[in-house]
Amino acid sequence: MRSFWIFGNQLSHELELFDHVESDDVIVIIEATSRATWRPYHKQKLVLIFSAMRHFAEELREKGYTVDYHEADSFQDAWDDHFTRYEPEEIHYTAVTDAAMEKKLKQFGQQHKLVEHTDVPLFYLTKKEAVDTIGNAPWRMDRFYRQMRKRFDVLLEDGKPRGGKWSFDADNRQPPKDGLTFPAPIHFRPDAITKDVIEKVNRDFADHPGDITPFVWPVTRSEARRALKRFVEERLETFGPYQDAMLSDNQDMSHSLLSAAINIGLLTPDEVVQAAIASDAPLASVEGFVRQLLGWREYMRAVYVASMPGYESVNTFKHERDLPHYFWDAETDMHCVHQSVKPVIERAHNHHIQRLMVLGNFATLFEVSPQQTSDWFNEMYIDAYDWVVLPNVLGMALHADGGKLATKPYIASGKYIDKMSDYCKGCKYNPKHTTEEDACPFNALYWNFIDKHEERFAKNQRMKMMVRNWQGRDDDVKADILAKARQTIHDTDSL
Ligand code: FAD
Ligand code: SF4
To answer: Which atom of ligand 2 is nearest to the CA of 337?
Structure first.
């Protein structure tokens, strides 16, 4: 007989590996405590993975597969037990992306006969195809995305982009209007399996960060399908225009909240894309959403595969400061940071622009170590895996790779955060002030960053205006701003 090992982020009935399973083969699923402690993962992340694994095992048994499910201290313990019982000739598995897991598999493969299967449809491209498509650095997402649209024939008419342009990004940056509301996403109630897992995580992982309840995430394919249906029917319409907007106490807006389910295989990216295309939503919203999955998600994965190992330690600006306590307790007077960290503590998620414009921007301007920042993202989010965290944090948000992934650093002053959110209305600081007592901390630090990296960005098409703006200021004005920036960095913990 042969064993087919399925990992906790590969819970898809569409895995190609199932085409090879015969009646005397056994499916192996391992809930390993050691893996759950590689990092202090948010409690809800552990609940999601363990509960989804247990549900998936049940579904496979109902389909007639023999499933050997282990709750074990380590993968090795589980395999020792499995070998004693079944003595498999071969171990089949689906290709993994994360470098650490791949390394473990290689070690495992020194003692056992391993057979790898493709990870399509968990991704559109295999790892090799991803690297071939992305080409050499510096990489560019718009180029990659156009190739993907053509290759998979998505939103094309006669070989041309539907609506006459490849991207409606420029239409997708509307600031939030007063009184704006959005249809709510579905929240799921924990069933008996999830309740058991919550009890286990509370007991065995009590020192991990984050609240464990309310736990509202989909843990089965059928729940994830319901979430997708609600999204495309009721919420996608407003996804486009307000993609870059942020509202206090509305952490969902029109975001799909599907990343957690997609990243563990409950939904394939292509079925999500097809559901969006089949919806009645306006083209700008549909294209904006398709771009996230067919474009950004595949692009990030390609960057990761093309640049590991090595990418994890990039630090172009040599930033070494620590993340402040409020990344764990949300206790800060900076209302934007409070509003962005709170949902992470409460349910291991916030939306893209909070991650980018507030938290990533904070880490860049406050000169926080990129590795500490990516560790925090890796540990605190329900949808986090190395392959998606490292490019998003180190490349897109922090520009720590020096521009391999994106043309410019994503930095924003308080004035821009004020434009794109309602956060500043409830804040102790004033987004219009730069050096005054009540000045928004982001403002002086924004110019501090431009000052320090003036030379690097003077010729950058998208940065040179800001550099010139800075260079045109009087020396004493600059000195005041830089003094305020030094003070702000010094006071980081008490802001
Ligand atoms: P939506 O806004 O509804 O987007 C739709 C889908 O597109 C998402 O579900 C996701 O699958 C995909 N997507 C969109 N943008 C990206 C992107 N940049 N990279 C990869 N997929 C994308 N995404 C993760 O899945 N895991 C992470 O750990 C993660 N960390 C991030 C860290 C930073 C600093 C930044 C800037 C972005 C990060 N992202 C990450 C990307 C993005 O923020 C999340 O995918 C998104 O917020 C998930 O919520 P959603 O499902 O409501 O997404
Ligand atoms: Fe954030 Fe500054 Fe606005 Fe306060 S004033 S919410 S710190 S951007």
So the answer is: 1
Please tell me whether residues 273 and 385 are part of one structural domain. no
Distance (Å, whole) CA 6 – CA 10: 6
Q: Are residues 399 and 431 in the same domain?
A: yes
Q: CATH code at 106? A: 3.40.50.620
Of 413, 423, 446, 494, best ligand 2 pocket probe by most atoms within 8 Å of the beta carbon: 423
Over residues 429-447, the mean pLDDT reads: 97
pLDDT tens for each residue of 303-324: 999 999 999 999 999 999 999 9
Q: Are residues 247 and 374 in the same domain?
A: no
Residue nearest to atom 10 of ligand 1 (CA): 259
pLDDT digits (tens, 9 = 90+) for 278-299: 999 999 999 999 999 999 999 9
If you measure from the C-alpha of residue 411 to the centroid of ligand 2, how many angstroms do you get, rounded to a whole number? 14
What's the average model confidence in pLDDT over 422-451? 96
d(C-alpha 9, C-alpha 15), whole Å:
12
How many whole angstroms from 110 Cα to the centroid of ligand 2? Answer: 54
Find out whether the beta carbon of 255 lies less than 6 Å from any atom of ligand 1: yes
Confidence check on the interface: ipTM exceeds 0.90, yes or no: yes
Query: Is the domain of 344 the same as that of 285?
Result: no
* Domain match, 140 and 284 both: yes
pTM of the model: 0.95
Residues of the domain holding 206 = 127-306
Identify whether residues 333 and 450 lie together within a single domain: yes
Q: What CATH number corresponds to the domain at position 354?
A: 1.10.579.10
| Amino acid at site 437 | E
Residue 225 lies in a domain: yes
Compute the C-alpha angle 118/147/239, nearest 5°: 90
Last residue of a domain, one of 64, 83, 117: 117
Beta strands 90-94 and 2-5 are parallel
Domain count, the chain: 3
Instruction: Assess if residue 217 is contained within a domain.
Output: yes
The answer, yes or no, to whether the previous bond of 214 is cis (omega within 30 of 0) is yes
d(CA 182, CA 193): 31
Pocket test for ligand 1, best of 49, 392, 393, 398 (most atoms within 8 A of CB): 392
How would residue 108 be classed by pLDDT, with cut points 50, 70 and 90?
A: confident
Residues 105 and 135 in one domain: no
Tokens of 226: 């319901």
Is residue 422 lining ligand 2, measured as CB closer than 6 Å? no
Residue 228 and residue 270 in one domain: yes
> Tokens for 247?
């509202």
Does residue 351 have its Cβ closer than 6 Å to ligand 1?
yes
Residue located nearest, by CA, to atom 30 of ligand 1: 389
Say if residues 304 and 386 touch (Cβ distance below 8 Å): yes
